Amino acid sequence: MAHQHSQQFLNLVNDAKQRVREVTVDDVKAKLDRGESFLLIDVREDNEWDKDHLPNAIHLGKGVIERDIEQRAPDVSAPIVLYCGGGFRSALAADNLQRMGYTNVLSMDGGIREWREKAYPLTRG
């Protein structure tokens, strides 16, 4: 069930989306299928991660990603794909990573909800 977002939140997301590059769920699935090398980061909350997440993903919640990203991705040119529930929090996080100097960050539009709808594989727990 989709969350009802406030207009102010949507305005913030739409502003960030003007600056970030987005990728589709199908694009991310294809990258994984081809064995491309990139850092796949789930920016959702801990309880969301614990339920399920994309294969090969790591968890850096939106609340800590800016603090902890340099430990996981010291190379600011490393390819990174962020995802969340629907593509809003990942866009906000991507915008912040770009402000920190990361140059190859993508946000997965549609998020894990669309991934689930397409019955793509998930890792549980």
Structure, explained:
This protein is 43% helix and 17% strand. The protein has 125 residues and is an alpha/beta fold. The chain has a single domain (23-124), classed as Oxidized Rhodanese, domain 1. A 5-stranded parallel beta sheet has the order 1-6-5-2-4. Strands 3-7 form a two-stranded antiparallel sheet. Strand 5, helix 5 (88-99) and strand 6 form a beta-alpha-beta unit. The longest helix has 12 residues, at 88-99. It is globular and about 30 Å long.
List keywords for this structure.
single chain, 6 helices, 43% helix, Oxidized Rhodanese, domain 1, 7 strands, 125 residues, five-stranded parallel beta sheet, alpha/beta
Compact overview of the structure:
The chain has helices at residues 7-17, 25-34, 46-51, 65-72, 88-99, 111-117; strands at 21-23, 39-42, 52-53, 58-59, 80-83, 105-108, 123-124. The protein is of the alpha/beta class and 125 residues long.
Largest sheet: 5 strands, parallel
State the CATH superfamily name: Rhodanese-like domain
User: Shape from CA axes?
Assistant: globular
The overall average pLDDT, rounded, is: 95
Task: Count up the helices.
Answer: 6
Instruction: Please list the strands of the largest sheet in the order they lie side by side.
Output: 1-6-5-2-4
Overall domain count: 1
What order do the SSEs take from the amino end to the carboxyl end, as H and E?
HEHEHEEHEHEHE
CATH class: Alpha Beta
Helix content: 40-55%
What share of residues are in beta strands?
15-25%
Gyration radius over CA: 13 Å
What CATH architecture would you give?
3-Layer(aba) Sandwich
N/C terminus separation = 21 Å
**What's the count of strands?**
7
Provide the CATH topology.
Oxidized Rhodanese, domain 1
Sheet/helix structural class: alpha/beta
Show unreliable segments: none
